[in-house]
Amino acid sequence: MYCVFILKRLIRNVYFVVLLLVLYVVALMTWSRPVERPPDAGSSRWCGVGRPQAPLIGDYIRGHPPVNTSLRLEELNLYDYIIIIQVRHSLKDLHRLVYGLQETQGIGRTLLVFSLYSDNDGIVQAVNEVNFTKVLTVFYPFNDQVCQDFYPGPSDIYCRQSGCSEYSAGFRNVKYSQSKLFWWWTVNFVYEVLNLENNYSNNVILLEADDVTAPDFVLMMDHLEEQAQVVGLKHSVYSLNCLGVTTEVSGEDVVVGPFLSFDFSTGLMLNMDAYAAIRAASHVICHYADFDWRHSLRVALSNFTVISVAKSRVAKLEDYVRVWSAGYRDMFPVELKVHRLEQGRPPSRGGWWGDVRDVNLCLLMESVSSLHGMFQALAVGDSDVMGSSGVV
Asked: What is the CA 23 to chain-centroid distance, rounded?
């Protein structure tokens, strides 16, 4: 009996050893296996969008023309302001913003440009139902709805071998990367494709769908422009949002100071000089190691002055409720009181930006010739568009 017991133990041990050997061989084969890449993917040219994927983006563009409007370019100067609104995913936020815009005095003097991150029937319908002023719609083609399993969506398939995401512990977060790319594409696309430099002489306001607007924010834009001329500001940007301000500030107060140390979350207003400076600083913006376009922009326009409302007229919901919790008695001011904004600390780098593909795509978006070539090629399904950008 004892011998039988020993024999059974040996058999079990042999099985265990064999199992360990099998697991070791499988693990070894897995770790040594080369990283799979799409056929004919080539290098990371054209920011990692491989030839097999380019037609997919082309299909999206053909189904969603980059510009969807009956507006003629010669009509642009009929509008006192162009308001660009970035829309990502929240239909609830968009409905709230549209309702606020509809209640705004003077909103009929503006052109609304909705930049849609992805294809969402509810969001498209909500935008199409806006009837209180002229609307233009643009579609962002490099979203992670189209690019679900390849760059610039949530895939690092090209980076594993090229080492192009050696930052933030080697991890690229598509949510953060797309935040900067979506803003940068929207600004450049609207300015360049609509040729605002030659067709428009007024200011452009940048909003996001999760913003809340005050009924007098268009009036305050008029006041800020007038005040900039009174103070004699040449290189300046305007803001309808100012963070860190308490409810004790009056609705007629404005602050003037260095843009580099100014803290805001939305509601920026740009004139053509500011946009020209942004274009000139595209390398700074695209290489600055921060996914937040606001920080990148303040560094790029560090020599600019900001003139801003002290009591935000455009803000995220929580900030708006805090600022206006005491009521709306001091809205619609007749005159403004100007205060100097003390020199503060420049923004710290927030990281989550540094993937060479993101930087290359960012630089590509700056060029109007690249934008036109990109959409023309993709719209006809030209899978060789990668080689036309000159970006490696």
From this structure: 46
